[in-house]
């Protein structure tokens, strides 16, 4: 009942898998000051980790709901379906790029929607130049994040899944939010064995309460933008930012 009461009026009843919904979410992010600061922090983390000494373009997967192109000059935006201002339309499992053409692949909340992570990783190895990176912000597995997803989110959260697949119900509705943790933590030995050309550089769990306080893209604003720094200081002061992390920064390098 509380979720229904707090639902953002612009997204009520919309089809999650419709391109129009993704385009609308970008407008919502830009219109909510607290949520925009969440994205600004995510983008700061991504930009800081882009490889400076590697040639090639930077590709963003799942660009439709964000605004990273304002922070990364020459960014190639893409999404799995047509979204105004975003091209090419591209499936992460079949990237339309030549071997070693890319310097980086970046994404925010995308990996856990890909129904064939193994295919994506192989494509990343093919398309990235040596020293190129995959830099992403993804959901993470903690007891708190499990609670948040079960109570407040419509995505599946299954850390016990025996596979690296997410449900193929739709490009947005099909997801397993525990998948990044499965690939880069629980099954790290498999990752290192089957993709020896990929080196996991960094996994930084963070952001315990801030995204929930923002209301995300599906709920109304729960906090004013000016309070963002206070929330961040509170998380760090209480030592909960990693222990109760809902997201993680993940950096993988093509050796």
Describe this structure in words.
The protein has 255 residues and is an alpha/beta fold. The chain is built from nine helices and six strands. The protein has helices spanning 2-6, 19-31, 33-48, 117-127, 143-152, 179-186, 188-194, 210-214, 228-238; strands spanning 57-61, 76-77, 102-108, 128-139, 198-206, 247-254. The chain has a six-stranded mixed sheet, sandwiched between helices. α6 crosses α7. It is globular. The termini are far apart.
List the helices and strands and how they pair.
Elements: H1 2-6, H2 19-31, H3 33-48, E1 57-61, E2 76-77, E3 102-108, H4 117-127, E4 128-139, H5 143-152, H6 179-186, H7 188-194, E5 198-206, H8 210-214, H9 228-238, E6 247-254
Parallel strand pairs: 1-2, 1-3, 3-4
Antiparallel strand pairs: 4-6, 5-6
Helix pairs in contact: 6-7
Quick take:
By secondary structure, the chain is α/β, with parallel strands linked by helices. Helices cover 34% and strands 17% of the residues.
Primary descriptors:
six-stranded mixed sheet; globular; 255 residues; alpha/beta
What's the number of helices?
Answer: 9
On the 0 to 100 scale, the average pLDDT is 93
Q: Give the SSE order as H and E letters.
A: HHHEEEHEHHHEHHE
Q: How large is the radius of gyration?
A: 17 Å
Q: Which structural class matches the secondary elements? A: alpha/beta
How far apart, in Å, are the first and last alpha carbons? 49 Å
For the largest beta sheet, what order do the strands appear in spatially?
A: 2-1-3-4-6-5
The number of distinct β-strands equals 6
**Quick one: biggest sheet?**
6 strands, mixed
Q: What is the molecular shape?
A: globular
User: How large a portion of the residues is in β-strands, by DSSP E?
Assistant: 15-25%
């Amino acid at each position: 009942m509380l979720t229904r009461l707090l639902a953002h009026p612009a997204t009520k009843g919309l089809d999650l898998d419709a391109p129009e919904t993704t385009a609308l979410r970008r407008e919502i992010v830009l219109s909510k000051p607290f949520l925009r600061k969440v994205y600004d922090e995510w983008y700061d983390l991504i930009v800081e980790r882009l490889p400076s000494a590697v040639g090639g373009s930077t590709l963003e997967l799942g660009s439709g709901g964000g605004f990273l192109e304002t922070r990364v000059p020459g960014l190639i935006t893409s999404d799995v379906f047509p979204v105004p201002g975003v091209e090419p339309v591209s499936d992460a499992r079949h990237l339309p790029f030549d071997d070693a053409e890319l310097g980086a692949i970046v994404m925010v909340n995308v990996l856990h929607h890909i129904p064939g992570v193994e295919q994506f990783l192989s494509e990343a190895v093919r398309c990235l130049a040596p020293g190129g990176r995959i830099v992403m912000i993804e959901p993470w597995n903690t007891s708190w994040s499990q609670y948040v997803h079960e109570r407040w989110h419509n995505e599946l959260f299954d850390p016990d899944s025996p596979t690296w697949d997410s449900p193929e119900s739709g490009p947005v509705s099909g997801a397993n939010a525990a998948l990044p943790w499965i690939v880069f933590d629980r099954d790290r030995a498999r990752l290192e064995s089957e993709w020896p050309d990929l080196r996991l550089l960094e996994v930084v769990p963070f952001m315990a309460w801030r995204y929930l306080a923002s209301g995300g893209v599906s709920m109304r604003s729960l906090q004013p933008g000016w309070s963002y720094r206070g929330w961040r200081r509170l998380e760090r002061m209480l030592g909960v930012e990693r222990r109760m992390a809902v997201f993680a920064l993940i950096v993988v390098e093509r050796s």
